[in-house]
Amino acid sequence: SAELCLLPALAALLPALPGPGGSGPGPAEVGLSDLPAELRVAVRALVGDLDALFAVFGLREENFAVGALSRIVAAELASYAPARNRKRTAANKASVVFVDRTLDLAGAVGHHGDNLAEKILSVLPKLPGHKTDVMVNMVELTALQTTDETCSIIAPGCLAQPNDPAAKALWESFMNLKQKEAVMEARRHLVEAASRENLPIKMSMGRVTPEQLSLYIQLFRNNLKALENHCGLLQLVLATVQTLKHPQTSKWDNFLAFERLLLQTIGESEMPSVLNQLLPMIKSYNERTKDDYTCEDFFVLLVYMYAVVGEIKSGKELDAAEEKVKKALVKAICDEPELPPLLQKIT
């Protein structure tokens, strides 16, 4: 979008986490030579990419850093020969702030955003080979009626629609408006597109439902010209419908409720009692209903808990509580009939 540029080639670049007991050099002393070889290569690649990006904008930047890896990146960029040459002739000034991603794990796994773009990117399956785009099931726009979720005869749609001004405008509102307003924007764009194509659309007021959007989408189905003219817009609205109907979206509110409860509880009690509250919620595959948390969900919750708590007082009580949670999780993972990709990586 106009305000946000993602660099998917560097999606795997994460600061090295300290070992058990915070072992390893202190953050202040770490330089590029102290990093593992793979991370050194990634940092140099990032510095080269950023220099090329700033050259396009004609920037003369001043670097600031928050976090150990960010300090290294900022220092490398400042001493990078091509960057020094560029700064001599660049016309525009800019302040660049580097921040370590690991300093806000609670933000990365939390569910506090009332944002449609975030939900679409979280729940729909990733477009193969892409880090920042999703697959949108296009079957609804065809005469082929199948209940197979993974129907692969029809190529999936996606969110990137650079050639469709209406779709680009709608994506901006998905990113910048609250979910309710964004869904209303989706309906408005659909109604305008249908009117332009003289499709028999009845404008309805009130709350927008995914079913209503589906009905509007189906008006385009047998009209090839209308489909071609508004293909980008239809992909974004289909992404909205599929996200709103997705079971993970209804679970979003459960996560949010648990996170709020956690924030209250942590203020009043210690980590062991919070872990003991979590324990009965860890259920094996055969015991779970669709509303229960999966093993992956628990990892997300645990990352949130430990990130929010910060410094934890260790002791026998905490060790015992953690051991129980570990055992319950291991049992649940072993009982999974098929491990999802994240759990395969972890195990």
UniProtKB/TrEMBL annotation:
This is SCFD2 protein. Keywords: Signal. One of its GO terms (biological process) is vesicle-mediated transport. Residues 1-23 form the signal peptide. It comes from the Eukaryota. InterPro entries: Sec1-like.
